[in-house]
Amino acid sequence: MLNEIYEQTKEHMQKSIEIMKKEFATLRTGKVTTAIVDNIKVDYYGTPTPLNQVGSVIATDATTIAITPWEKSMLGEIEKAIQEANIGVHPNNDGDFIKLFFPPMTSEQRQEIVKQAKAMAENARVAIRNVRKESNNKIKRLEKEKEISEDEAKRALDEVQKITDTHIAKVDELLKAKEADIMKV
Predict the structure, then answer these.
(1) Which residues, 6+ apart, have CB-to-CB distance to 13 below 8 Å?
(2) What is the pLDDT of residues 101-147, one digit of tens each?
(3) In Å, what is the CA distance from 76 to each residue of 7, 72, 83, 87, 93?
(4) Residue 27: is its pLDDT beyond 90?
(5) Residue 49 β-bridge partners
(6) Bridge partner list, 57
(7) How far apart are CA 100 and CA 176, in angstroms?
(8) Which pLDDT value is given to residue 150?
(9) Domains plus CATH for the chain?
(10) What's this model's pTM, rounded to 2 decimal places?
(11) Would you say the C-alpha torsion 35, 38, 42, 44 has a positive or negative sign?
């Protein structure tokens, strides 16, 4: 019963870390990645569709992303979606494809992106703490219903705290690595 709670706790905390990793991928570092446009939705015949499902998205070099739509008629919609997404660049449409030229980042931009990364990490920490609270409540409920002893409950709460500490440390480690990546010129 307690092992089940530990496993669920680990699983849910790991999901919080995975979500944070996906969010981190959308942040710009010194080198441009196609993940920057992952959250952009294009109006595809009335349906909001991810950009990478209406055309090919490739990083041609460290500062350029090229988007080639599968239907030429989508060029205008893709251009509009990129402008609305406000990712810090203007799309260049040449009639066949769209190129996004990302200028080198200034130190102010890097600081701003680090702030975003810190906010994402804090959201992950809060999610992890919420999982801990949920698990602790389950343990306290078991103790209240006399399914486990007071000592077992104490040990279980300590174990949940250890699991939490491990996952919070992982978040901090990932944030530190992302920060270094963003600040690297």
Answers:
(1) 127, 128, 131, 132, 163, 164, 167
(2) 988 888 888 899 999 999 999 999 999 999 999 999 999 999 999 99
(3) 48, 9, 11, 17, 8
(4) no
(5) 42
(6) 67
(7) 28
(8) 92
(9) 2-26+106-183 (1.10.132.20), 34-101 (3.30.1360.40)
(10) 0.77
(11) positive
